[in-house]
């Protein structure tokens, strides 16, 4: 007998509402998440600029954002909102703790949030500090008190399994079949490897990066979305390249070395 499917009513009262979808840097998302949900604090201010002499020109309409808080050091205050014209029609859905699902609206504008040129240097500095901090591993050494070899003794039932014959030790261990599943590296370590790869060449396809890093493709995509820009057209179509701020970080690091 098949399992009964759970049926949930969809609330569509706000289905026709126009909403904006914006991709923001990680540091901005963390700053907003640190503000309590019941707080009345303003997170940011969106500024819309329009050239009255050329109102029909698409480039005359500009969007920018000014951050209100300053909880994170070196976080830029001013950002440009680059609007996309061609994107797949999308809708926004929400789910409450009680399992109620609602349609919040249709995506009217899609934006990519990037620091403005006047804040780019401090943003690069913050990215370098974050990368260097993630590469530092805090390893701990635990000293075991002298227990007269209790921890070194074989466990019950293992005495007959441990061979003392040196000839048996030289026997080759059976070769294990290669495992298809890849193990994820530490994120900071993997970011360091990615920067080294992009120093070797500026553009990489996802399949090439999977082979070079031996990492799961989905895990690589998560990091590539933060560090890189995907080329949808042009001579480098289908490849990733570092965002401008990270390219500058690599150049500064190479110069310092």
From TrEMBL:
Against CDD domains, the record matches this protein to: TFIIF_beta
| GO terms classed as biological process | transcription initiation at RNA polymerase II promoter
Recorded GO cellular component terms are: transcription factor TFIIF complex
The protein's UniProt keywords, in alphabetical order, are: DNA-binding, Nucleus, Transcription, Transcription regulation
Q: Can the keyword Transcription regulation be found in this entry's annotation?
A: yes
Residue stretches making up the TFIIF beta subunit N-terminal domain: 17-131
Keyword Transcription listed? The answer is yes
GO MF annotation list: DNA binding
Chief place where the protein resides:
nucleus
Positions of region (Disordered): 161-183
Task: List the subcellular locations.
Answer: Nucleus
Q: Give the domain of life.
A: Eukaryota
Q: Which family does it belong to?
A: Belongs to the TFIIF beta subunit family.
Q: What is the protein's given name?
A: Transcription initiation factor IIF subunit beta
Q: Which organism is it from?
A: Centaurea solstitialis
**Lineage start:** Eukaryota, Viridiplantae, Streptophyta, Embryophyta, Tracheophyta
């Amino acid at each position: 007998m098949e399992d009964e499917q759970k049926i949930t009513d969809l609330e569509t009262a706000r289905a026709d509402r126009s909403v904006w979808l914006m991709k923001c840097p990680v540091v901005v998302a963390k700053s907003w998440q640190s503000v309590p949900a019941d707080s009345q604090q303003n997170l940011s201010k969106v500024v819309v600029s329009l050239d009255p002499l050329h109102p029909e020109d698409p480039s005359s309409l500009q969007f920018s954002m000014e951050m209100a808080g300053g909880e994170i050091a070196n976080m830029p205050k001013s950002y440009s909102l680059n609007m996309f014209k061609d994107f797949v029609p999308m809708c926004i859905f929400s789910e409450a703790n009680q399992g109620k699902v609602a349609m919040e609206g249709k995506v009217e504008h899609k934006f990519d949030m990037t620091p403005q040129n006047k804040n780019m240097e401090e943003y690069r500095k913050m990215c370098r500090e974050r990368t260097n901090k993630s590469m530092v591993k805090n390893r701990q050494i635990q000293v075991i008190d002298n227990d007269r070899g209790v921890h070194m003794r074989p466990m019950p039932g293992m005495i007959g399994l441990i061979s003392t014959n040196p000839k048996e030790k030289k026997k080759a261990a059976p070769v294990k079949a290669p495992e298809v599943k890849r193990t994820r590296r530490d994120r900071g370590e993997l970011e360091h490897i990615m920067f080294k790869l992009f120093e070797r060449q500026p553009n990489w396809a996802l399949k090439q990066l999977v082979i070079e890093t031996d990492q799961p493709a989905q895990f690589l995509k998560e990091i590539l979305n933060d560090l890189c820009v995907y080329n949808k057209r042009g001579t480098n179509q289908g490849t990733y390249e570092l965002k401008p701020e990270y390219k500058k970080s690599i150049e500064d690091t190479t110069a310092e070395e």
